[in-house]
Design a protein that fits this description.
By secondary structure, the chain is α+β, with helices and mostly antiparallel strands. It has 4 helices and 5 strands, in the order βββαββααα. The protein folds into 2 domains: about 100 residues, 2-Layer Sandwich (Ribosomal Protein S8, Chain: A, domain 1); about 40 residues, no CATH class.
Length: about 150
């Protein structure tokens, strides 16, 4: 029998330059065109996904962007011991169609800055944003991170 409804999600991992951090990549967009960092469980309230990830005792930080989640673990934990359970958790969570980030809660917590070029930006700011979007952002995302322009 063929399962209908929510698509089948696959999750694979990518190492990052930081041995305590692992990038979990999904075949689905999690937070299209945006990124958000949760350095601790307290900051994760706007994200049901991050909140549940902090339920794992070895998770120190959660970063969500585009189609991936980057997790930072405690030093005493070995990635080989926990990758299978984290991958399965993410797969199940996304297949159930649960919310990744609650935008209303996020807006109440903080006002995000935007990398989009606006009419209010002067020429230098416009050029910086273009350089970040075209050159820096792709390289940083390959290592499981993201950048955001703040003036």
């Amino acid at each position: 029998m063929i399962k209908t409804g929510n698509p089948i999600i696959s999750i694979y991992t990518e190492m990052t330059p930081n041995p305590e951090t692992m990038k979990f990549v999904a075949n689905k967009l999690l937070y299209p065109g945006k990124s958000i960092d949760f350095p601790d469980a307290e900051s994760a309230k706007p994200s049901p996904l991050a909140t549940e990830l902090f339920g794992f005792p070895f998770i120190k930080a959660v970063f969500i962007a585009s189609n991936f989640v980057t997790l930072t673990k405690t030093t005493e934990t070995d990635w080989q011991d926990v990758i299978p359970s984290v991958r399965q958790f993410l797969k199940d969570y996304l297949e159930e169609g649960k919310a990744v980030v609650n935008e209303e809660e996020l807006a109440a917590v903080k006002q995000e800055s935007s990398n989009e070029v606006s009419a209010d930006d002067d020429d230098v700011v416009k050029r910086i944003k273009e350089l970040l979007d075209n050159y820096v952002r792709p390289a940083v995302e390959m290592d499981g991170g993201a950048i955001q322009f703040k003036s």
